[in-house]
Amino acid sequence: MNDLNQTHLNTNVPSLADAAACIDGILLGKPRAVRLALACLIARGHLLIEDLPGMGKTVLVHALAKALGLDFKRVQFTNDMLPGDLTGAAIFDRAKGEFVFHPGPIFTQLLLADEINRASPKTQSALLEAMEERQVSSEGVTRPLPEPFFVIATQNPVDHLSTNPLPEAQLDRFLMRLSLGYPDAEAELEVLRGEDRRVLLDELQPLLDPAALTALQRQARGVHAGDALLHYVRALAEHTRHAAGLAFGLSPRGALALLAAGRAWALLDGRDHVLPSDVQTVFPHVAMHRLGHGDARTAAHHAQAILDAVPLP
To answer: How far apart are the C-alpha atoms of 204 and 202, rounded to whole Å?
Structure first.
C-alpha cells in the first residue's frame, strides 16, 4: 500500500489528513477525537459520543458529514418518539388506493441520533436493529439502508431525568465510544475570538465522497495484522475476562472490533500494517463500554491499567 497522500493523488481525492485538518479547524483543539471518529467510520462502525452539552458533539457530526460528502439527517430523540417516526411507515394513499411506504429519517448515510438515551427502549431497539442489519423491515417488506450508513449517537452522562440508559448488549452495537471534553485554553480563546462555528460549517466543502469513503473502508480491511499482533489482541481480550473490577469480559466480537479499529487507525497513519500502539490508542474507546465500565470520560484511566497488565508482543 502506498501512503495515504500518494493513494489520493492517484484517485484525485484529497487525503484523509486534509479532511481531519478541516474538521479540527472547525471543532478546534480536538485532533485526537476527530481522528478517532474518522477511524470509526473507516472501520464501518457506529459511534457513541458521551459528553456534557455544549462540548461540540453536533459540530463534529455536521463537519464529518460535510467533509466526507455524506447525506445527513439529525433526529432529536424524545421519550414519546415511536419506532415508525424513525424508520418510516406505510400510509394509505386514497388516490392510489393502496398503502405507500414513507421512509423515515433513518434512510440517510449519516444519522445523528441526538440524546439516544431519551428514547423509549422500543425505539432504541428499532434503531439498533437497523444499525446491525443495515436494513429496515416494515409491513413485511425489507428495505436496505443507504451505503455507506453510519449512526453517530449522543447522550449526556450526567442528566438521567426521563432517560433510558442503553443496556450493555445494545452498547455493543457501537464500535467506539468517546468523549470530547473541555478544550484547552488556546483552543477556547480561538473559539471566542473566531467566527461562529455554524458559519464555518456552511462554508465547508466536501473533501471526499461516499465512493471514496467506501474505497477507504475496503483498504482498511486489507491492512496487515501479523500473528504477533493477533496474539496481542487476544491476550487483551483474555485479560478482561478475568480482571477484577470489570462487569464483563471482551467478547470475540469485541476483539474483532478492536482489530478493525486498529487497522483503521493504521490507515490514517498511512501504514499498511497494524502496530501494537494502534491497538493501544483505540482500546479505551472500543473496549470499555463493552466491559460495563463507567462513562467515556473516566474510561481512559481504567483502560490504561489493562494495557499495562498485558505484555507487548
So the answer is: 6
**Inter-residue contact 146 to 109 (CB < 8 Å):** yes
User: How far is Cα 158 from Cα 189, in angstroms, rounded to an integer?
Assistant: 26
Beta bridge partners of 91: 100
Which tens digit of pLDDT belongs to each residue from 222-238? 999 999 999 999 999 99
Domains of the chain: 4-220 (3.40.50.300), 222-313 (1.10.8.80)
Q: Is the pTM here over 0.70, yes or no?
A: yes
Instruction: Give φ, ψ of 13 to 5 degrees.
Output: -120, 130
Q: What cell does 9 get? A: 493523488
User: Coil, strand, or helix at residue 240?
Assistant: helix
User: 176 is written with which cell numbers?
Assistant: 467506539
Residue 93 three-state SS: strand
Cis, bond preceding 148 (omega within 30 deg of 0):
yes
57 or 16, greater pLDDT: 57
Confirm if 175 and 46 have CB atoms less than 8 A apart.
yes
